[in-house]
């Protein structure tokens, strides 16, 4: 390692080289290399702005842009692999540029600091990642919508407190996750607007003495706006925290679905069968087939929450403006992005081809419980019995039926009428699971008619979102 190179990076003020362990401790190249393509693009825009404003000549600007492009090629071909002597991706690029284009390379950093540079890179990076995650959310929804379409008529027990509550259309259950991920998609779109602000030209903290044009470089990078205050521009990480909030909520949603799939795949529930392509066996128990994918998703959720917490704590005590603490934002962000992207991909595959709903068993499950009890009370209430009175009466019936080992459908008409004279023969039809579901025809409810409508709306919304996501690809 050439540690004397590190001391030369800063200025002649330094007389001796960094201690090798401190150089390694200080270096971020091990992880911020992830930003390289965005660093190159940001630097190209900066060079063009310098030429545009006459701070450097047009020819110099072109040389810088071409040199940066050559580094991009080298990197893509695996030929540019800077080590820790470079400290970080920004220095690594600048050094290589000077090797490639000579002294003009040393002009790149005119009117710029690594502080506004790293902020620019991080925003460009996050912008691209947000677009990808939004795309993935739509792909995930597409699978849910296809499954919902297939399972409008499939019934599944609905739970509160994990106790059988009322039966549902399976499509209604699946569409709940479409709604959650729709909010995720929307939220990321709103956050994107704030990520899409340029700090380039804020300098180290106070702006610059050069006649730069921040709007020009921002426009080249397709930023929608520029930071109005240089101190805020170089030290703001709100956009990263907002992203981590949104990422955490995506993980909450994936983790809840994961938990359900894990339960559903158990012998006790038996609502889904896991396919071999998405489950693994045990090294000792030959009968086992484990739901590794949803378990990993559930497990990885904590990492993203942790990164959100880390960034909040990172920021809370920082005096203005840049502090080296901010270098710690990157691994939190990169790992969260990778985790969310990986989990979305895995869950999409799992739903698409990794599991099968056991429709017969599901339809059967809802006939074996008291989840039609509310409907008996509703039946009486519809005939004018005050609901609370009806509710109490049905509670009594459930108690005596349980004791007799019977279900509500097994009561004779005589028994019903002894309970209350308002019962008639149509009570049997009213409490079949299918009718219980169909009857919940209030807006947003599980009634088949509502579910059909909700599905149609969700499909339309998906198509519109798909259109904007295709258009907004950077
Ligand atoms: N690697 C640094 C970071 O990620 C770049 C900015 C360094 N700025 C500074 N003033 N030391 O934060």
Automatic annotation (TrEMBL):
Keywords: Amino-acid biosynthesis, Arginine biosynthesis, Cytoplasm, Lyase. It catalyses: 2-(N(omega)-L-arginino)succinate = fumarate + L-arginine. Residues 370-438 form the Argininosuccinate lyase C-terminal domain. HAMAP family: Arg_succ_lyase. It is found in: Cytoplasm. This is Argininosuccinate lyase. InterPro entries: Arg_succ_lyase_C, Argininosuccinate_lyase, Fumarase/histidase_N, Fumarate_lyase_CS, Fumarate_lyase_fam, Fumarate_lyase_N, L-Aspartase-like. Its EC number is 4.3.2.1. Coiled coil: none annotated. The keyword Amino-acid biosynthesis applies. GO terms for biological process: L-arginine biosynthetic process via ornithine. One of its GO terms (molecular function) is argininosuccinate lyase activity. Pfam families: ASL_C2, Lyase_1. The keyword rRNA processing does not apply. It comes from the Bacteria. Belongs to the lyase 1 family. Argininosuccinate lyase subfamily. GO terms for cellular component: cytosol. The lineage of its organism: Bacteria, Bacillati, Cyanobacteriota, Cyanophyceae, Leptolyngbyales.
């Amino acid at each position: 390692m050439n540690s004397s190179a590190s001391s030369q990076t800063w200025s002649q003020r330094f007389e001796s080289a960094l201690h090798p362990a401190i150089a390694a401790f200080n270096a971020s190249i091990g992880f911020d290399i992830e930003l390289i393509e965005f660093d190159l693009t940001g630097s190209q825009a900066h060079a063009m702005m310098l030429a545009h404003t006459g701070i450097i000549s047009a020819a110099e600007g072109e040389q810088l842009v071409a040199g940066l492009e050559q580094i991009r090629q080298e990197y893509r071909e695996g030929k540019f692999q800077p080590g820790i002597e470079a400290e970080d991706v920004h220095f690594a690029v600048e050094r290589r540029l000077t090797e490639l284009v000579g002294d003009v390379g040393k002009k790149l950093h005119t009117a710029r600091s690594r502080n506004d540079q790293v902020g620019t890179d991080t925003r460009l990076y996050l912008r691209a990642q947000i677009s990808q995650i939004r795309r993935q959310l739509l792909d995930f929804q597409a699978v849910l919508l296809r499954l919902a379409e297939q399972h409008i008529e499939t019934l599944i027990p609905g739970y509160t407190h994990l106790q059988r509550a009322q039966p549902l259309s399976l499509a209604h259950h699946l569409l709940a996750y479409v709604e959650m991920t729709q909010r995720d998609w929307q939220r990321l779109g709103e956050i994107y607007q704030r990520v899409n602000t340029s700090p380039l030209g804020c300098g180290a903290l106070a702006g610059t003495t050069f006649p730069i044009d921040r709007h020009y470089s921002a426009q080249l990078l397709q930023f929608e706006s520029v930071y109005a205050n240089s101190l805020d521009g170089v030290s703001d990480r709100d956009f990263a925290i907002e992203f981590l909030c949104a990422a955490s909520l995506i993980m909450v949603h994936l983790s809840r679905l994961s938990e359900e799939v894990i339960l559903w795949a158990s012998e006790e529930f038996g609502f889904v069968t896991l396919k071999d392509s998405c489950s693994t066996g045990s090294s000792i128990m030959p009968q086992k087939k484990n739901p590794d994918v949803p378990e990993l998703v559930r497990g990885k959720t904590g990492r993203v929450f942790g990164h959100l917490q880390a960034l909040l704590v990172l920021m809370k005590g920082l005096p203005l403006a840049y502090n080296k603490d901010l270098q710690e934002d990157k691994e939190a962000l990169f790992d969260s992005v990778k985790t969310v992207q990986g989990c979305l991909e895995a869950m999409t595959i799992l739903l698409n081809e990794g599991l099968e709903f056991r429709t017969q068993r599901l339809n059967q499950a809802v006939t074996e419980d008291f989840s039609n009890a509310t409907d008996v009370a509703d039946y009486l209430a519809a005939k004018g019995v005050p609901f609370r009175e009806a509710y109490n009466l049905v509670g009594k019936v459930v108690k005596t039926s349980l004791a007799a080992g019977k279900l509500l459908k097994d009561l004779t008409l005589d028994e019903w009428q002894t309970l209350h004279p308002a019962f008639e023969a149509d009570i049997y039809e009213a409490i079949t699971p299918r009718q219980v579901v169909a009857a919940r025809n209030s807006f947003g409810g599980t009634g088949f008619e509502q579910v059909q409508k909700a599905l149609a709306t969700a499909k339309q919304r998906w198509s519109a979102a798909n259109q904007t996501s295709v258009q907004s690809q950077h």
